[in-house]
Amino acid sequence: MKTEITLLIGASAMALMSLGGAAAAQECPRGDLDARYCDADDDMIADIPTDPAEQIDPDTLVFAYTPVEDPAVYKTAWADFLEHLEAETGKDVIFFPVQNNAAQIEAMRSGRLHIAGFNTGSNPLAVNCAGFRPFTIMAAPDGSFGYEMEIITYPGSGIEQIEDIQGKQLAFTAPTSNSGFKAPSAILKADYGMEPEKDFEPVFSGKHDNSVLGVANKDYMAAAVANSVMGRMIERDVVSADQIVSIYKSQTFPTTGYGVVYNLKPELQEQIRDAFFNFEWEGSSLKEEFEKNGEGQFLPITYKEYWDVIRKIDAANDVSYACQ
Fold first, then answer.
1. Closest C-alpha to 215, from 148, 165, 253
2. 2-143+254-316 sits in which CATH class?
3. Do domains 2-143+254-316 and 149-249 have the same CATH topology?
4. Angle separating helix axes 183-192 and 308-316, nearest 10 degrees
5. pLDDT tens digits, one per residue of 199-252
6. pLDDT tens for residues 1-47?
7. Running DSSP on this structure, what letter comes out for residue 147?
8. Contact 120, 270 (CB under 8 A)
9. Is residue 319 over pLDDT 50?
10. Would you state the pLDDT for residue 15?
11. Which of 69, 83, 251, 269 has the fewest Cβ atoms nearer than 10 Å?
12. Domain extents for the chain?
């Protein structure tokens, strides 16, 4: 895949890579960022180059949405927004369908992608390796977004706080589940020094519904679940709220993060940012597609705050942000 991407690199990409060499020569704070970037303001994303000669102002802006099964559907969904983006920036904007996360990150790193929506898990790598500057996510009209992982028990279980799970049983859903296994495992290890097998007995229920039912019926003493699933089960009267006690609630897991590559001219970055926040959702192709998930606005975010829990999970799972 890397060879294929390299063959597609154009003049703008080569210019970016040259600028990257200049940035790499600087002595500057950068945290986990690749050597080509600096982070003087400690916001954990690449600074905009202070030298105007290192800033770019392309005639055509390239936008990519996180890889999906049928990119054509999302090209249509984003059509109204991209038309609005053209009006706000005075530039042509094209939709670039990407096939996988690695290709999307490489496209931005190589200079062929200027604006993008990276999914939750790939955001940290895009930030650190490709100079991605996320500033917004989609949210419901009331400002709510994403979901949380909760660790639950039942009244009278004897478990009142996380530490009480020591030596007892904790139900997960499946090893591939973020909120049902990876996130709670990482948080328990990072914040409480507790690991499966060593400090508690892990069991697997298969899915969130089974874990919620298992706790409500006292089959499991405690379980890690997605609260969105639990909420729907309570709404449908599958279980009642008084059968469950929550002893831990994670930070909200963010959804797809939208932003720009670091070295666009500051004025252009501001125009793009404004286009996201003044976009009129009502009657748009974007609303038609994304209201299915309850989303209806772009919410301002910071990577440092909103992706904190994801970075914690990655660290616990020994995920590296090094560029390959």
1. 165
2. alpha beta
3. yes
4. 80
5. 999 999 988 899 999 999 999 999 999 888 898 889 889 999 999 999 999 988
6. 222 222 233 333 434 444 444 454 568 999 999 999 999 999 999 99
7. B
8. no
9. yes
10. 40
11. 69
12. 2-143+254-316, 149-249
Half-sphere exposure of 202 (CA within 13 A, CB side): 19
**b/e map of 282-301 (b: 16 or more CB within 10 Å)?**
eebbbbeebeeeebbbbbeb
**Pick among 3.30.70.3400, 3.40.50.720, 3.40.50.300, 3.40.190.10: CATH of 149-249:** 3.40.190.10
| CA 4 to each of CA 1, 72, 102: distance values in angstroms, whole numbers, following the listed order | 5, 22, 12
Quote the CA–CA distance of 117 and 281 in Å, as a whole number: 17
CA–CA dist 301, 310 (Å, integer): 14
Residue 62 burial (CB count, 10 A): 20
d(CA 268, CA 253): 29
Among residues of the chain, what percentage have pLDDT more than 90?
Answer: 67
Instruction: Return the structure tokens found at 192.
Output: 């409480």
Q: Cα–Cα distance between 4 and 187 in angstroms, integer?
A: 38
Residue pLDDT, tens place only, 40-89 = 999 999 999 999 999 999 999 999 998 876 777 789 999 999 999 999 99
Return the structure tokens found at 311: 């970075």
